Amino acid sequence: MAGMIRKSLDEPEETRPFEDGKGRVDLVNLEAGVVGRAVFEPGWQWSKHVKPIVQTDSCQAPHVGYVLSGRIKVVMDDGEENEFTAGDYLSIPAGHDAWVIGNEPCVVLDWQGYADYAKRHG
Predict the structure, then answer these.
(1) pTM of the model
(2) Average of per-residue pLDDT values in the chain
(3) How many CA within 13 A on the CB side of residue 70?
(4) CA-atom Rg of the chain in angstroms
(5) Contacts for 60 with CB less than 8 Å, ≥ 6 apart
(6) Angle formed at CA 98 by CA 90 and CA 93, multiple of 5 degrees
(7) Residue 24 belongs to what H/E stretch?
(8) Which domains does the chain have, with CATH numbers?
(9) Cα torsion for 104, 102, 75, 82, to the nearest 10°?
(10) What is the Cα–Cα distance from 22 to 20, expressed in whole angstroms?
């Protein structure tokens, strides 16, 4: 049986900043995969602040997570849309854009989609 593991997102193993200082994703690596906490600042939008980094038409990372604070709107490539707010569980397939609603940062814990999120390639 494995022992306990303690890691802190306040002392991440990796941090990936978004364009224009509009936030970041902090990451810790676990045997089961990467867990991340994203801070999306007011005015952040995936297509403006992450797309230039990853160079895909839409976000291709599927997300499974929990919204700690703030609000975010997600629009799928097929037009389906939803808003998520503090206290919401979220499951979002690949193929979407997203942006912060309001003047409060949106903070999201994600245990599926951040392994390659906002990662520069090449």
Answers:
(1) 0.93
(2) 95
(3) 20
(4) 14
(5) 54, 94, 95
(6) 45
(7) strand 23-30
(8) 14-110 (2.60.120.10)
(9) 90
(10) 5
pLDDT tens digits, one per residue of 81-113: 999 999 999 999 999 999 999 999 999 999 998
What six digits make up the tokens of 87?
């206290």
**What SS3 class is residue 3?**
coil
> In sequence order, which residues have a C-beta less than 8 Å from that of residue 80 and are 6 or more positions away?
none
Q: Identify the helix (H) or strand (E) that includes residue 51.
A: helix 51-54
First to last CA, the chain: 39
- Going 61 to 62 to 65 to 67, the CA torsion angle's sign is positive
Yes or no: say if 33 and 114 are a contact pair by the CB < 8 Å rule.
Answer: no
What CA dihedral angle connects 82, 85, 91 and 95, to 10 degrees? Answer: 50
Q: Residue 53 in 3-state DSSP?
A: helix
Inform me whether the pLDDT recorded for 122 exceeds 70.
no
Residue that is written with structure tokens 């929990």 in the block: 66
Q: Are 98 and 23 in contact (CB under 8 A)?
A: no
Give the pair of three-digit tokens for residue 109.
Answer: 């814990």
